[in-house]
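Project outcomes to date are best conveyed with an example. Our students and postdoctoral researchers have been running inverse folding experiments weekly, and each run begins with a structure described purely in tokens. The record below, which covers 30 residues, was selected by the lab manager from last quarter's runs and is presented without edits.
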């Protein structure tokens, strides 16, 4: 696999994790 491809997958995965964390934080704040 090319490093560029791995980088894109990693960025998408990190973004999904950040979205989940932000959602869980919003629930705690409410």
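After processing, the design step wrote out the following sequence:
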């Amino acid at each position: 696999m090319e490093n560029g491809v791995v980088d894109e997958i990693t960025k998408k995965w990190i973004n999904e994790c950040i979205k989940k964390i932000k959602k869980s934080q919003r629930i705690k704040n409410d």
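The longest helix spans residues 3-29. The radius of gyration is 13 Å. The training component of this project remains on track.
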